UniProtKB/TrEMBL annotation:
GO process terms (BP): DNA-templated transcription initiation
Region described as Disordered: 82-104
Recorded family membership: Belongs to the sigma-70 factor family. ECF subfamily.
Matching InterPro entries: RNA_pol_sigma-70-like, RNA_pol_sigma-70_dom, RNA_pol_sigma70_r2, RNA_pol_sigma70_r4_t2, RNA_pol_sigma_r2, RNA_pol_sigma_r3/r4-like, WH-like_DNA-bd_sf
Domain RNA polymerase sigma factor 70 region 4 type: 116-167
Protein name: RNA polymerase sigma-70 factor, ECF family protein
Residues covered by the RNA polymerase sigma-70 region domain: 15-78
Source species of the chain: Providencia alcalifaciens DSM 30120
Regions annotated as coiled coil: none
Biased composition (Basic and acidic residues): 87-96
GO MF entries: DNA binding; sigma factor activity
Length: 178
């Protein structure tokens, strides 16, 4: 692959001015410096390997768009890996739980917890509730939710995070004062 010198200078300049910002962007979302460094490098690699011939008008905006996509891919890969690494102990525990007859008090407690969770979800603002339900119960990705709801991925992240905090707080408050 050959890169003309003006593009190489442009990328070099963008690397020098934006690399640290990208690392901070990833680190703040992942809490891991090694992954932040690797993903920041991936952003520039993707820029170098892009097929489009149109010039990039706003380097920083373009790089952060790539970074958002790289982050989503990273989360998706990690989620798939964690799903595929279910241990035999977890599977056998789930089977044992299903095979045993649960104590009626445990069943009642479980039903009450589900009712409190349903109540917490009902108390969410409509758009937040929609994003949360699409993510947790319909299994849509954040980018799919953003597209469906016609909002940014960042806004989807905020809705989901706020909904999780709200539900946890509601469940905690309800368990303190039954």
């Amino acid at each position: 692959m050959t890169i003309d010198k003006s593009l190489a200078r442009k990328i070099s300049g963008a690397y020098q001015s934006t690399y640290g910002q990208l690392v901070r962007f990833f680190r703040s979302r992942l809490g891991n410096s090694n992954d932040a460094d690797d993903l920041s490098q991936d952003v520039f690699t993707l820029w170098l390997n892009r097929k489009a011939q149109d010039p990039v008008k706003e380097n920083r905006a373009y790089l952060f768009k790539i970074a958002s996509n790289v982050l989503i891919d990273h989360w998706r890969r990690n989620h798939q890996q964690s799903q595929s690494h279910t241990s035999i102990d977890e599977v056998s525990h789930e089977q044992n739980f299903e095979q045993t007859t649960a104590d009626p008090s445990e069943i009642l407690e479980h039903q009450q917890r589900i009712a409190r969770l349903s109540e917490a979800i009902d108390l969410l603002p409509p758009r937040r509730r929609e994003a949360f339900l699409l993510y947790r119960f319909d299994g849509l990705s954040q980018s799919e939710i953003a597209e469906r709801m016609e909002i940014s991925i960042s806004m989807v992240e905020k809705h989901i995070a706020a909904a999780l905090v709200h539900c946890k707080k509601h469940l905690d408050d309800q368990s303190k004062y039954p």
